[in-house]
Amino acid sequence: MAIVTPAFVSDCLETLEEIAMEGEEIFHEVGGKDFTTIPCLNTNKDWVAFLAKQINEWSKAKVQA
Q1: DSSP state of 14
Q2: pTM of this prediction exceeds 0.70
């Protein structure tokens, strides 16, 4: 099973401990075999560039308003 947390854009205590560690433990307790988590976007260069673009566009719109 692969777990992804699309609501989180960066790994934090909740994604790392509660979802990854505790989730894996429960998964194995009920007979699951393969468990992996897919990291959040964190500092992925494409994500950072997109986010910076959105912030810049938002701030320009606010100045013009």
Answers
A1: I
A2: no
